[in-house]
Amino acid sequence: MPEKPVIWIIDTSVFLNVLDVPQFNQSREAVLNELKLRINNGDTFLLPITSVIETGNHIARINNGNQRQIFAQKFSDQVLASIEGKSPWKPLKFPEAEDVKKWLVGFPNAAQSGMGLGDHIIIKQWEEQCSKFAAYVVKIWSLDKLHLQGYECNH
Fold it and tell me: In the chain, what are the domain boundaries?
């Protein structure tokens, strides 16, 4: 039986390495090698709004103003390319009020376990993709060892 195609939800930790953001790029070579391999496998990549916002926040805190400007432009170009269908990843649908309401229902329990809203939303979006794309294996690609490891469905 042929293997199912794979959808990867890209976490902030991976996106920061792809963009080579200083202080957040320690795994860049491994991430780029893995990205190339996964592209060659025909995998699909989804960029959640959480990763976009968190990456932008990290870039805004770069101490060197010149570097901050360079990486903010690189980031903006990558996100726009994603929206325009010109990058390896596609943006996950931007949330509407109903999405946010659903995510907030489970957030108090997530927060109690030490999980931030960003990771909670990524997991909720992973659950949505698992239901929506039963013919695909859906995984979260994260370097975060705390909350986002091991998420895989439909295998």
Answer: 6-153
Q: What is the pLDDT of residues 32-41, one digit of tens each?
A: 999 999 999 9
The CATH classification of domain 6-153, taken from the options 3.40.50.11810, 3.40.220.10, 3.40.50.1010, 3.30.1360.40: 3.40.50.1010
Distances (CA, A) of 45 to 110, 132, 146, 151: 25, 15, 22, 15
How close are the terminal C-alpha atoms of the chain, in Å? 12
What is the 3-state secondary structure of 44-103?
A: EEEECHHHHHHHHHHHHCCCCHHHHHHHHHHHHHHHHHHHCCCCCEEECCCCCHHHHHHH
Q: Which has the closest alpha carbon to 124: 135, 138, 145, 143?
A: 138
Q: In angstroms, rounded to a whole number, what is the distance separating the alpha carbons of residues 10 and 19?
A: 13
State the amino acid at position 103 in one-letter form: W
Could you tell me the two tokens for 90?
């596609």
How far is 55 from 107, CA to CA, in rounded Å? 21
Only one residue has tokens 């959808």, namely 7
The token pair at 25 is 């790029």
pTM: 0.92
